[in-house]
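Input structure tokens:
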């Protein structure tokens, strides 16, 4: 049910546009329609064709996010003046969403550790700043 007991029933073109615009993020779709997330989930359960579109858009969203994270890492390798926060965000995205690309894979972790890029807590070490301090992100 939507707002004030009105049945939630968007048009085909509207739901497809919303899925694409919200990149398959169900909570964003629910906010767009001003319904509970559970209402959105129930609707998608009742309409498997849209649920499939949500999964495809979500997969594309994750691929795009991993591309962005890889670009962040690439940029940070070249620019030692950047803040560690960007690197940690990129690391999080790749470790948690980049599994299809073999991030957070035991062999990758072993290689990073052998190169001295990873500490025992699986935290990527931050390159020293220009003041020559030797520290790592905790």
């Amino acid at each position: 049910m939507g707002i004030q007991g009105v049945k939630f029933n968007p048009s085909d073109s509207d739901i497809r546009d919303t899925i694409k615009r919200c990149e398959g993020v169900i909570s964003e779709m629910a906010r767009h329609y001003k319904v509970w997330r559970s209402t959105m989930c129930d609707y998608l359960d009742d309409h498997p064709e849209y649920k499939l579109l949500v999964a495809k858009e979500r997969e594309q969203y994750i691929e795009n996010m991993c591309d962005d994270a890889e670009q962040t890492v690439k940029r940070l390798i070249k620019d030692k003046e950047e803040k560690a926060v960007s690197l940690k965000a990129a690391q999080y995205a790749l470790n948690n969403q980049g599994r299809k690309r073999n991030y957070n894979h035991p062999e990758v972790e072993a290689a990073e550790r052998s190169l001295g890029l990873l500490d025992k807590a699986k935290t990527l070490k931050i390159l020293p700043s220009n003041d020559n301090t030797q520290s790592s992100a905790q």
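The CA atoms of residues 17 and 88 lie 33 Å apart. The chain has two domains: 8-58, 60-114.
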